[in-house]
Amino acid sequence: MRRNPGLRVGKVASVLELPHFSATRLVQHLEVEDLVARVSDPADRRAVLLSLSSKALGLIKDIEDRSYQLVKAYASGLSESELAGFVMVAENLDKILGVSDRALETVRKPE
Residue 79 and residue 36: Cα distance in Å, rounded? Predict the structure, then answer.
């Protein structure tokens, strides 16, 4: 939802390969935890769009920061050839997953 804000529950169900009712329940639980907000679709009054709350965005940032630190720590012990192979694999995953380049930049330029 962060990369594609304004998704409908049906799209979430499709992406997660869940039945619509399961996605609806999931969204309800996330809403109770103040992680997701429902917003009326201005283009279609019957539809509801989902957006991540600031709480959810903060949690995502915390997870990304921790992942970044782990990648940085593990990459520091690699040889030049291992590092080159790791970066090549990571770049392909980045393209597939649409992940930030931040971790890759650290690996390319160790401190």
Answer: 43
